[in-house]
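CORE FACILITY INTAKE
Project code: CF-77B
Contact: R.S. (postdoc)
Sample description: multi-component assembly, two entities in total
Requested service: structural model of the whole complex
Turnaround: standard
Below are the sequence entries exactly as provided by the requester. Do not edit them.
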Amino acid sequence: METKDYMVKKPHVLVLKSAGTNCDEETRIAFELTGANAEIVYTQDLYTNKKKLERFHILIFPGGFSYGDDIAAGKVWATEIKHFFIDKLKQFIKEGKLILGICNGFQVLVKLGLLPALNGKIDQSVSLICNDSARYEDRWVYLKKCSTKTVFVNDLEGLLLIPVAHTEGKFITKDEEILKKLFKKDQVIFQYVDKNGKITGHPANPNGSVRNIAGICDETGRVLGMMPHPERAVLQTQYPDWRRNKIKSSMMGSTIIENAVNYIKTTLL
Amino acid sequence: MYYRIEISTKPSLQDPIGEEIKKDVQHLGSRGIKSIRFIRIFILKAKKIKKEKLDLIAKDILSDPVSDIYSFTDHITHGNEKTITFVEIAYLPGVMDPVALTTLKLMKKIGIKEIEDVQTRNRYEITGAVNEKEIEFIVKKLLMNNLIQIWLRDKNSIHFRKKILSFKKRTINIINKNDEELFDLSRRGLLSLDLVEMKSIQDYFFNNGREPFDIELETIAQTWSEHCIHKTFKGIIDYNGKRIRNLLKTTIMKATEKVNRDYCVSVFKDNAGIIKYNRDYNISFKVETHNHPSALEPYGGAGTGIGGVIRDTLGTGLGAKPIASTDIFCFGPMNISIKNLPSGVLHPKRIFKGVIAGVRDYGNRMGIPTVNGAILFDKEYLYNPVVYCGNIGIIPASLCFKAPRDGDVIVVCGGKTGKDGIHGVTFASQELDETSEITSSGAVQIGNPITEKKLVDALIEARDEHLYNAITDCGGGGLSSAVGEMGKELGAVVHLEKVPLKYKGLKYDEIWISESQERMLIAVPQKDMDRLKQVFSKHNVDFAPIGRFENTGKLKLLYKNEKVGELDMDFLHNKCPLSRKKAYWKRERFAEPVLPKKLRLGEILLKLLSHPNIASKEIVIRQYDHEVQGMSALKPLVGWENDGPSDGAVLRPFPDSKRGIVITCGINPYYGKIDPYWMAASSIEEAMRNSVACGGNPNKAAILDNFSWGDVNNPKILGELVRTSYGCYDTAVALKVPFISGKDSLNNVFSLKGKKKSILSTLLISCVSICDDVTKSPSSNFKQARNLIYIIGKTKKEMGGSHYFKLFNRTGNAVPELDFKQSYKTLKKIHRAIKKGYVSAIHDCSEGGIGVAISEMIIGGRLGAVMYLEKIIREGNLRDDELLFSESNSRFIVEIPEKRRKAFENCIKGIPYAPIGEVQYSKKLTIYTKKKKAVELDIDTIVKKWKQRITW
C-alpha cells in the first residue's frame, strides 16, 4: 500500500467531522474524483491523537450543522477547537498546507478567528449572521473571483456557478476599517454576482452579505473559507440546467478542489 | 444560584428574526407594531461563579463579538420609547431543549465545571402602540405554544422541577366490569379500544385467573391500535351488502402478488418496502402520515414526522441509509380570517409556516435532501391538516432481512426516554376536539435532529460490521411496540429501570410507552456488545442493554426485579378481535357550474396559474436543502432561471454510474368527492406519468399508498375507503406496478360543538422507479425555439373535480376516468421515446390541463410558444375552455426537435398524439382557436402570476 501511495503521490485530504456535520461524504467523493486520497475523521480522534493531523496535506471543514447550530452556527465546534487544537492548526498552516472551510466550515473558521486573521492575529473580527430573508435558502449563485491571493483560485477564469444552502451566511465585519483592510490586502476572494458578473442584490446575493462577500482567505492565502458548496458542483448532472447548457469545466466547483490538489502535488509531494 | 445572560443582535444591525415575526403579526391583522427585536436568554445554574468567568462565558461562548451585545446584569433594550413591551417565553419543565443540552455539554467539555444546568428562553422586545389584548394575541398565536412553552409574565422563574415518584405497581380491575364500565375504562385511560376488544381482554385475564397490571393494558392498547395494526383495513367490512374480509389483503396486497414483479425484494413486511437498484444495492421507500401532532404543534409535529420516517428507513432490513425525503401537505385556506376560526384550531398560515419550518429544520440538519412534494389548500383541511412525510434509503442487497436470535441482547440506542408523546399512537387513532390542545399535550413530541444524525452514522457503521441481528425504530407505541414487534416470534424479557431516562420521575409504564424521539432498538449477540460499545462511543451515541430475547413466547416486563407484566406474544399479536364495520358507497350528484358564454381564456389561465394549489411553491422548496449529499440529477426547480416546476426528482447515488432513482407522487382528493375509484386510478397514473416524465422506467417502478381518512365509523366515509382500494387494485394491476408499502391514518375528525368534521378522503400515491441513464432524463422546461410541441393522449370532456370548476366553486360530475390499456401503452411508449433521446422536454398534464402544463414549460424555459387548440385530439364535442383546462388522464406535453419528428412518431405509434404548436423565441404564449387568436400573454405576466401567490 505504502509503495503505491508513494508511486502516484496522492495528496492526503482530511475531511473533519463533528456531530451534525453532513456534507462530509460528498466532500470526500469530490476530492477522490480529483485524484486525492480523502478520509473522513472525527474531531474527537484528532483531539485524542488517534488520527494524526501531520499525516495530511489538506484539511477540510465541511458543511452541515455542527452541534445543530445550537448557540450560533459553527460556534460550539469553534469553541471546542479553540480549547483543544488551535496550536496544531497553526502549525499545519505554517507547514504550507491548506485549510478549506465550506459553509458551516467557513462559519467555524471565522468564529475561531483563523479567518481573516489580519496581521496574523487569531481573533474573531468578521461574522456570518442570519440571512436578510431570515430563512434557509438553497440556490445556485455566480461567484466572481476578486483576488489571486489564494492558491485555491489559481486557474480560475470567469465566473463560478455553485450552490449555496444556509440560514446564516450574511458576511459582516466588526467595523468599516476591517472591511477596507480585507479588500486592500486582497483577502476577499469571492463576491456574489449575477450571471453577467454584476454586483447586485437578492437573489444574486442570497443572504445580504456586505459588499456581496462570499469567501475570504487569510494572509498566507492557504486558508480559504466560503459559503457556497463547491463539492456539490463537480458533475455535469449536479447542475440545474445541464440538459440545455453544458457547463464549462472552469465554472464548476471542481476547479477549486483541483487547484488545491495540484498545489499540494507541486509543492509538497 | 441562577445566573441570567441576555444576548441580542447589535442595535445597528437588522434583526431578521424580529422582522419576520413583525411581518407575521401584520399578516394576522395587527398594525400598531413598530418593531420586534429578538433577545436570547441563557439561565445558568451554579453554586457560585465569579463575575469574570460569567463575562467570559457570555462574551466568548454564548455571544458573537462581531454581531451581538450581551448583558448579565440588566435587561437588554434597544430603544427608549415608552411603548415597549417585553415578552419572555420559556420551555415547560421536561420539554426537550436542545440548545441548553449542547451548551451544558460544551461547558463540561472545556472545563467550566461550575455550571450545573442550563435553560434557554426567548425574549421579545415589542415596540409600538399595541394594547395588552393584542400582545396576548400575538404571544399566543405566534410566539409560543402552550403545549411546550410558558409565557412568564410576572413570575420570573420556573423551576428545574424534578418530581420523584415512588414506585407503585397498579392492578386494574377488569374481570368483573360490565360493558359500560369497560368502555369507560378505555376512554378514561386513553386506550382507544372498543367494547369488543375490551371484552376479549377481559376474557384473557379471566382465563389467566388474575387482574391485569396497568402496563399490560397499555401494551395491549398500543399493539392493537389502529396506527399499529390497521384494524379497519384488516377487519370485516360489510360493503353495499357484500362482506369483505381484510380489505388490505384483497386489494392492495393482492395487486402486488398479481403483478409479480421480480424487482420487489420486500413488500409490506418491514418498516419500508424494498426494490432492486442494481446487483449490489436496493432501495427502500416509506411514506408516513403525521396529521394529528401537526395540527396541535405544527413545528414539532412535522419535524418528528420527518424524523420518524427517517428512522423507518434506518429500521428497514438491517438498516438502509436515508438519502432523500418527500413531503406532501394539505392545509386549510390561507386567507381565512382569525375571527372565523373555531377555538382549538390553529390558523392555516401558522400551521403552514410551522410545518414547513419543522420539516426544513429536521431534514436540513440531518443532511437529507427534501426533493419532492406537493401542497394543497382547501377548507376541508381547516380542522385537520394532512402531513405526509416520506423517505428513501439505499441498502446493500445482502442486508435486507433480519431476525433476532434467542439470547440476543435488546439494546435501545440514540435519544433518552422522557414523557414525550405518551399515548401518541392511541391519540393518533382518536378524534380531536376543542379541548385536545389541553388533554393531549403529552402526545406532542419535540425532536432533536442532531441526535438522530449521530444515530444514523453509528448504526450504519455497526451494520457494516454485522454487530446486530435485527433493528427497528421506536416510533408509535415506543418500546412497547418495538420490543413486542421484534420479539413476537420469540419472546422477550425487559428490565424497564435500565432504559436511560432524560430525567427522573417517569413511571415504569411511562418508560414503556413513551414515544420519545430518536431511539432505535437493536438485537445484539452478547459477543458483539464490546465492539458495539466502541462504535457507539466513537459517534458519541448513548445506548443501553435493557433485556434479552428468549424463546418463551412471552413478553415479560420487570421493574427493579419485580415483575410488572407478563403477556403471551400470541395473544398480543394474533388475538385482536376483527373489527366489524358497515360501509356503502353511492354516487352523489354535484351541481354543475354555469360556464360563461364569452370566454376570456387568457384571463382564466392566469387565474388558474395563481390558484394556490397550482402556483409556485418556490418559497417552500428553497428552504429545503434539496441538494445535500450531492446526488441530485433532476431538481424540484428546473430551467433557465431555476424556478420552473419539475415533475419529480432524480437522484444519482453513485457518481461512477449513470443509473438513477426517480421519485414522484400523485394526489387529487377532489376527484374522490365524485368517485374515489377514479381518484385512485388518477392518482396512481399521475404518479406514474410524473415518473416517466422524469425518465423513470415504468417497468421498474413501485408505488406506495397513504390514506388520510375521516371518521371510518361513518359508513359513507368507510365506503369511500373501500371504493378507493378497489380503484387501487384495478389500476395497479393494469399498469403492472406493485404496491410495496403503505400507511393509513384514519379518524381525522374534529368535533366541533358535537358535530363531527371529517377531512376530505385523501389518497396519496408515491412512486419510486429506476432511471437507467440519468443523462437521458428530460426536464419539463422548453429547451429550444422552433422545436415542435406535441400533445400525447386524448382530451375528454372530463371537468369534474377540475381546478377550472373550482374557479366557479363547483365540483361537477364528469370525473377523469382511465382507459387502463391505453394508459399502460402510453407510459411504456413515452418511456421508450425518452430513452432513445428524442424528447427535449416533457411535462405531465394534470391540474389545470393543457393550459397550465404548457405555461409551466414556458416558465421553466423562458421561451415562448404558439399553440393551436383545434389540433388537440379529443373525444366528443368540447368547448375551447374545456379543451384547454380538462384534466383527462394519460396526457403529456412533449417538446421534440424537428429533425426527430419521424423517429419520435414511429416510436410512439399506437397511442394518440398530435403536433399542436411550436416553441418560439418570442416572449409570449399565443393560443389560436379555430377562428382567432384567443390568448396572447407575456411570459413575464405568466411568471408573475404564478410566482407571486405564495410568498410567506
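Facility notes:
- Chain A has one domain: 5-267.
- Chain A touches chain B through 60 residues (CB under 8 Å).
Invoice: internal transfer
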